[in-house]
Amino acid sequence: MAVFLRLAVVAAATAAAASDPYAAGYPSPWASGGPGWDEAYAKAKEFVSGLTLLEKVNLTSGTGWQADECVGNTGSVPRLGFRGFCMQDGPLGIRFTDQNSAFPAGINAGATFSRRLMRLRGEAMGEEFYGKGIDVQLGPASGPLGRVPQGGRNWEGFGADPYLAGVGMAETIQGIQSRGVIACAKHWLLNEQETYREKVSVTVDDRTMHELYMWPFADAVRAGVGSVMCSYNKIESIYACENNWTTNYLLKNELNFQGFVMSDWGAQHTKLGSALSGLDMAMPGDFMSASKTYPPYNAMWGGNLTESVLRGEVPQWRLDDMVVRIMAAYFKVHTGKYTARPDTNFYSWSQNAVDFLHKSSKTHRQVVNKFVNVQGNHAALIREIGAKSTVLLKNTYSALPLRRPTSIAVFGRDAHDDPAGPNACPDRACINGTVAMGWGSGTANFPYLIAPVTALRARALADATLFANISDNYNLSAAASLAASASAALVFVTANSGEAYLSVDANAGDRNNLTLWDNGSALVAAVASTNPNTIVILHTAGPVALAALKANPNVTAILWAGLPGQESGNAILDVLYGAVNPQAKSPFTWAETPEAYGATPMFKAADPLNPAQTFDEGVFIDYRHFQRSNTRPTYEFGFGLSYTAFGYANLRVTPVVDGVAVPAAVVNAGRTAAAPTFGTVDRRLEANLAPEGFEKVWPYVYPWLSGRNVSVAPAPGAAVTAMTNGSAQGADVSNEGEVAGTEVPQLYVQLGGTENPWGVLRGFEDVHLEPGETKTVVFELTRRDISNWNTTSQNWEIWGKEKFVFVGSSSEKIRLNATLPAPKGLRWTAS
Ligand SMILES: *[C@@H]1O[C@H](CO)[C@@H](O)[C@H](O)[C@H]1NC(C)=O
Ligand SMILES: *[C@@H]1O[C@H](CO)[C@@H](O)[C@H](O)[C@H]1NC(C)=O
Ligand SMILES: *[C@@H]1O[C@H](CO)[C@@H](O)[C@H](O)[C@H]1NC(C)=O
Ligand SMILES: *[C@@H]1O[C@H](CO)[C@@H](O)[C@H](O)[C@H]1NC(C)=O
Ligand SMILES: *[C@@H]1O[C@H](CO)[C@@H](O)[C@H](O)[C@H]1NC(C)=O
Ligand SMILES: *[C@@H]1O[C@H](CO)[C@@H](O)[C@H](O)[C@H]1NC(C)=O
Ligand SMILES: *[C@@H]1O[C@H](CO)[C@@H](O)[C@H](O)[C@H]1NC(C)=O
Ligand SMILES: *[C@@H]1O[C@H](CO)[C@@H](O)[C@H](O)[C@H]1NC(C)=O
Ligand SMILES: *[C@@H]1O[C@H](CO)[C@@H](O)[C@H](O)[C@H]1NC(C)=O
Ligand SMILES: *[C@@H]1O[C@H](CO)[C@@H](O)[C@H](O)[C@H]1NC(C)=O
Ligand SMILES: *[C@@H]1O[C@H](CO)[C@@H](O)[C@H](O)[C@H]1NC(C)=O
Ligand SMILES: CC(=O)N[C@H]1CO[C@H](CO)[C@@H](O)[C@@H]1O
């Protein structure tokens, strides 16, 4: 077999624009439409023009923690029969409800390296969120990106490479939004660890910011994402949700984001600072103290934002812009078949049919759960993705696929059901049964969970294979003794991670180490001590130390199944028995110690009240670090075996006609026209008080002024409306076409010079090949793909260093290479 490759290079001359990013953080750029947004923007403008001040404030302000049905709700516009927005976790399915699907985690979607499967997963999730009456799905995630392997929430994203994560973001977002639901790209920005996440101040150089951490978000914006969530951490001492540089300048100006920014839950710290720095929606609307004791419930927006607008501290145009952005995202996804939106028909805070609508107030008992089944036929897709995201790391003596073995024995708690049921532990924070997702807010209830032992036993029965199993990880003599008699011994082991508010085995979100949990290494060693055909299956949230297993001749096969979701057992069955030929590639590098990764998390801050961290390693995370330091990992990024072999030949590189270069950011030297305002503001005190007789429930957040004593006189030095502003489109990124298949040729580009990694991923395609079949794979490179970020000119520029392209089956198994011809007007200098 052979895969022929042709490279097409889109290149263009460089256009530079001088600017100072730090001076350009104000004012907050106002939405203006643009490609993919014009129609939605026009509808939003019209809608917002008809709203009162209070109604506008209502749509920006959360009603409070547990105040309504969803994990976050905004106020509504009863006058127009427009209900408020419902925001619901998370990136792999709907949290806190029933009869929903539990999809494979983001890290598994990344491991497929398949645009098709990423898109289908997004569509299926979007259908489920739509069916429950949810407006915003709180996902996908590409922050954390995976700077450190212990990162507790790495599994919610697509892998430790910005290009892979960017493709995952774009496909997932387009899938979700095609089904009438707004996606939310999170967490913006530099939220790379759970430890200290609500305090840590992160510093990163501007080039790394662009080439690594912003990259997937840039792809999310280009895919038309409707919302972005700002994160808990600080960036250079300023909280992400009050940060004029990251939100106003980078996201809304440079990336030209037209949707809205919402806070992570409790990540808003100021009323004015957040509003002027580009926050558009406060979630959940009241103050969540770090100690998790409620109340105080001090809302920063709601009535307090109304007051600030009346006093001129927040200009009307800024409030109007918040609402236009929110409504533009709404109109953008509500088109065609999805014009209407179903009522919210579930309840996050209990599974009762009847309960308090306002749990925070314990009022308004009514029917809250309607138990709508939204699963459709998604189980088949979940099984397919589960199998096609399973990475075959080792396969010796043709151990796999299994061919009707005489007897199999299955070991490990991770192969078995949690005796208390798959949802027994709150937000999945335990390892009491097979692990099929991490823990925290990025989880969903399982509708059911097929444990590996269930699927394997059924298959053994059908094949007349003798079957036995042991779930105890600590009775090593029993394991060794059963293993001795089996023709294949299948050991299931785990290492999990999650979100900081829950700890499992003293792992407070981030993992404390890279070893297997639950006595996993000892269990594998015990089984392998008596069985020369030991097959190890890993359900881990990220890399674990595998050198001992790799070196053990009795361990004939190793598979990483990741966090596969509800069809776990069926998916691994398909791979083990060859119904699916493994095609996945590892979305991160596997090494033996955390130190080997060259990037250090901060578990113990010198100053625990003001922890600060600099990402000194720059762009050299994961495989880029291993290549630079010339150390071999156990298994590299992009690695994954198949039951067949592939040939690569005939690499051709073809420059494509120069495209037009679009500067990354254009900063206006002069003044723009004043920001637009929509509708009028009734400034009278009476107009902004709750209507006579309105019964407020405490502590629900309302848009009305808190009382007659509020002064609505203009505040001294209040913000002015006409300021400089500039925005421009980022350079385009082309999506490659869809090719289904089983090998994933990967394209790495060497940009040249010591400041660049040996190679960076810039293309991949899953190609299905019948035996003997040859297909040509075309990768298209964009200008950004062969550029570096110039921190002086604030632009993507093709540096003059000689560049190479490498094509291979992983970041190390390079099969073909070629030099990249210099685009017109450039001449390469040697690296
Ligand atoms: C704001 O939203 C709340 C909750 O939906 C609603 O009760 C209230 O009437 C709204 N206020 C206005 C002025 O529309
Ligand atoms: C705006 O951002 C810049 C760059 O981070 C920072 O120096 C400045 O203090 C910020 N301004 C405010 C008011 O936060
Ligand atoms: C406004 O802020 C004050 C002080 O933080 C708080 O007590 C009050 O509840 C807020 N008002 C509203 C309407 O949320
Ligand atoms: C999980 O298992 C541990 C020990 O095996 C037990 O103490 C705990 O109660 C279990 N958790 C749940 C929610 O079943
Ligand atoms: C074997 O698996 C079944 C579930 O399929 C479980 O009930 C049983 O406890 C397991 N046996 C042992 C010895 O762990
Ligand atoms: C280990 O398993 C064997 C065989 O099932 C049993 O006899 C023994 O009691 C077990 N030991 C422990 C400590 O559970
Ligand atoms: C690593 O952490 C896991 C989970 O807490 C624990 O079970 C294991 O013993 C730890 N490994 C080492 C070598 O301490
Ligand atoms: C491999 O298995 C055989 C039994 O088949 C055993 O004698 C040998 O010690 C095992 N080797 C290792 C490294 O566990
Ligand atoms: C309203 O303001 C007046 C004068 O400042 C003050 O005496 C009074 O206590 C205030 N009333 C309330 C309800 O805050
Ligand atoms: C970056 O841009 C500046 C200003 O345009 C230019 O002088 C410099 O040569 C550029 N750096 C590189 C490495 O191209
Ligand atoms: C490029 O490929 C040639 C064989 O075609 C090989 O000799 C050379 O070492 C390769 N270069 C690199 C950097 O991989
Ligand atoms: C590393 C580890 O915890 N190993 C334990 C595995 O289980 C056996 C039997 O309970 C213990 O003896 C080991 O210490």
UniProtKB/TrEMBL annotation:
<dbReference type="InterPro" id="IPR050288">
    <property type="entry name" value="Cellulose_deg_GH3"/>
</dbReference>
<comment type="similarity">
    <text>Belongs to the glycosyl hydrolase 3 family.</text>
</comment>
<dbReference type="InterPro" id="IPR002772">
    <property type="entry name" value="Glyco_hydro_3_C"/>
</dbReference>
<dbReference type="GO" id="GO:0008422">
    <property type="term" value="F:beta-glucosidase activity"/>
</dbReference>
<dbReference type="InterPro" id="IPR017853">
    <property type="entry name" value="GH"/>
</dbReference>
<keyword id="KW-0325">Glycoprotein</keyword>
<dbReference type="InterPro" id="IPR026891">
    <property type="entry name" value="Fn3-like"/>
</dbReference>
<dbReference type="Pfam" id="PF00933">
    <property type="entry name" value="Glyco_hydro_3"/>
</dbReference>
<dbReference type="InterPro" id="IPR036962">
    <property type="entry name" value="Glyco_hydro_3_N_sf"/>
</dbReference>
<dbReference type="InterPro" id="IPR019800">
    <property type="entry name" value="Glyco_hydro_3_AS"/>
</dbReference>
<comment type="pathway">
    <text>Glycan metabolism; cellulose degradation.</text>
</comment>
<keyword id="KW-0119">Carbohydrate metabolism</keyword>
<dbReference type="InterPro" id="IPR036881">
    <property type="entry name" value="Glyco_hydro_3_C_sf"/>
</dbReference>
<keyword id="KW-0624">Polysaccharide degradation</keyword>
<keyword id="KW-0732">Signal</keyword>
<dbReference type="InterPro" id="IPR013783">
    <property type="entry name" value="Ig-like_fold"/>
</dbReference>
<dbReference type="GO" id="GO:0009251">
    <property type="term" value="P:glucan catabolic process"/>
</dbReference>
<keyword id="KW-0378">Hydrolase</keyword>
<keyword id="KW-0326">Glycosidase</keyword>
<feature type="domain" description="Fibronectin type III-like">
    <location>
        <begin position="743"/>
        <end position="811"/>
    </location>
</feature>
<dbReference type="InterPro" id="IPR001764">
    <property type="entry name" value="Glyco_hydro_3_N"/>
</dbReference>
<protein>
    <recommendedName>
        <fullName>beta-glucosidase</fullName>
        <ecNumber>3.2.1.21</ecNumber>
    </recommendedName>
</protein>
<dbReference type="Pfam" id="PF01915">
    <property type="entry name" value="Glyco_hydro_3_C"/>
</dbReference>
<feature type="signal peptide">
    <location>
        <begin position="1"/>
        <end position="18"/>
    </location>
</feature>
<dbReference type="Pfam" id="PF14310">
    <property type="entry name" value="Fn3-like"/>
</dbReference>
